[in-house]
Specification:
There is one protein chain. The protein has about 100 residues and is mostly helical. The protein has a domain at about 35-85. Helix content is about 60%, strand content about 0%. It is built from four helices and no strands. It has helices spanning about 1-30, 40-45, 55-70, 85. Helix 2 (about 40-45) crosses helix 3. Belongs to the GASA family. Keywords: Signal.
Length: about 100
């Protein structure tokens, strides 16, 4: 009987464990990425390297990175890889992050 109780408690804890793992991954994608604040400068320098408007690009990229702790890969696009960076908008509804 004790073995049956143990095996049923394992099965009961699996959905709970799965729910906790899912909640933690959703929280991560909503709250931001995995960068350390000190990594923002280098990531933004690369992100803004192809634009002719480097100063405003760097200003907004650094601001977005500080909030989101994420910078999309590449010099343009790929914003879907960082939800916070992608979804932060100006008052006019345009993208805030380059």
């Amino acid at each position: 009987m004790a073995a049956a109780a143990r095996s049923s408690s394992i099965f009961l804890s699996c959905p709970l464990l799965l729910a906790l793992l899912l909640a933690s991954s959703l929280t991560e994608s909503v709250s931001g990425g995995q960068l350390q604040p000190r990594e923002c400068q280098g990531k933004c320098a690369y992100r803004c390297s192809a634009t002719s408007h480097k100063k405003p690009c760097m200003f907004f990229c650094l601001k977005c990175c500080a909030k989101c702790l994420c910078v999309p890969p590449g010099t343009y696009g790929n914003k879907e890889t960082c939800a916070c960076y992608n979804n932060w908008k100006t008052q006019e509804g345009r993208p805030k992050c380059p």
